[in-house]
Design a protein that fits this description.
Largest sheet: 10 strands, parallel
Radius of gyration: 21 Å
Structural class: mainly beta
Strand content: 15-25%
Helix content: under 10%
Length: 220
């Protein structure tokens, strides 16, 4: 086979190295408030936890591919979840931010997912799978479109502006709480709820669309 020699100008070599370095994935044990600045602008896989709690961040300064433990980015000023990992092994917290969308959120969360106390009007972009509880209260949701199809634990969507349960998970392993909303019916409610179903303080005219199966109590 004929060999071909390619000669690159020094400036092009430096540019190529820079691109490779930017795209390289660094694997680390943990990222926290003390060491996160070392990884700003880098792409990182974390085997343990990520703690970016209350750092007054407006965006995530690191691009995460995967986090094996917990991911905390709550109590910041985030307006976007761009840079979040695709998979989180344990819990994911992004509460108390300025989010209007869940675009960029993880696709899979093994534990709890909470996005409470934001400015969300939709759950589009939420994880497809949540192993334990899903929290989205204290937002501006009018429907549950975009919610996971199945939640292993409880589902909390109280204290929103819901006029419909359309988009709710088909199955919820624990409790389902939709109290303090503007619901006039339970159309779109989960088919199966393993624990209690709470729908206090709404404007219900009918409960005929309540879940087919409720493992605990129906409380309205």
């Amino acid at each position: 086979m004929k060999k071909v020699t390619i000669v690159l100008h020094e400036r092009k070599v430096k540019g190529l190295k820079r691109v490779l370095n930017e795209n390289a994935v660094i694997e680390v044990d943990n990222i926290n408030q003390n060491n996160y600045k070392e990884y700003i602008g880098k792409t990182v896989k974390v085997t343990g936890d990520v703690d970016l709690f209350e750092l007054y961040l407006t965006k995530l300064p690191i691009n995460f591919t995967e986090v094996g433990g917990n991911f905390w980015c709550d109590n910041n000023e985030l307006t976007s979840l761009e840079g979040c990992p695709k998979e989180v092994g344990k819990d994911f917290y992004c509460s108390h931010n300025e989010l209007t969308s869940l675009a960029g959120a993880p696709e899979e969360v093994g534990g709890i997912f909470t996005c409470s106390y934001n400015k969300l009007t939709t759950l589009e972009g939420a994880p497809e799978e949540v192993g334990r509880d899903f929290y989205c209260p204290y937002n501006k949701l009018t429907s549950l479109e975009g919610a996971p199809e199945e939640v292993g634990g409880s589902f909390y969507c109280h204290n929103n502006q819901l006029t419909s349960l359309a988009g709710a998970p088909e199955e919820v392993g624990g409790n389902f709480t939709c109290s303090y909303n503007q619901l006039t019916s339970l159309e779109g409610a989960p088919r199966k709820v393993g624990g209690n179903f709470y729908c206090y303080y709404n404007k219900l005219e009918s409960t005929k669309d309540k879940p087919e199966f409720i493992g605990g109590r129906f409380l309205k």
